[in-house]
Amino acid sequence: MTNPVIDFLLRRTSAPIPELRAPGPGEEDIATMLRAAVRVPDHGRLAPWRFILYRGEVRHRIGERLAELAERREGPLSEGRRQQELTRFSRAPLVIGVISSPKENPKIPQWEMFLSGGAAAMNLLIAAGALGYGASWITNWYSDTEEGRAILGLAPHERVVGFVHIGTYEGTAPDRPRPDPATLVSEYVGPWES
Ligand SMILES: Cc1cc2nc3c(=O)[nH]c(=O)nc-3n(C[C@H](O)[C@H](O)[C@H](O)COP(=O)(O)O)c2cc1C
Q: What is the distance in A from the centroid of ligand 1 to the CA of 96?
């Protein structure tokens, strides 16, 4: 018996970001993807994540700010490097930032809040693919610096789970070798002498 969900999960790949084109998802598809993204395990029902949409003209302004930041950190940029930074957020028609926004809670470890953010990003990636878009989850250097995160609209206590790039993709993404689960699984036999 075929199972469409399993078939999809076993075939899914990310799409190359430079090949993502307009049109990107409209309001209805974005709403659907976000409903999938929030439907994730979340210990304590804290919703310790949020989402930021990057689309339209602002994507170019972000690129200018990232190029300035890269230059402050690294010194003068080559033309190629400058172009790379300028176009970081304008390659795909839509980027959805999945932001971990941990809450103060005496019982739930922050680690679990981060993991729930990863689940939200994965559901978003799956939903984008299921709606027929190409999508790719990246973070990149600017996610790892406080100044980069500020440019992208994060508060100091927040972290980037991923910037999910989404657009129309007409190619076939080359698959990459996947690990053999058999090499990663063991049967627990306990610490006892047999
Ligand atoms: C948290 C996280 C951050 C990532 N950041 C990057 C990145 O900055 N640049 C990159 O090329 N790939 C990054 N990747 C990997 C891409 O998502 C990669 O294309 C993906 O592993 C392809 O796998 P798939 O075809 O199974 O989706 C990241 C993955 C994760 C989970």
A: 14
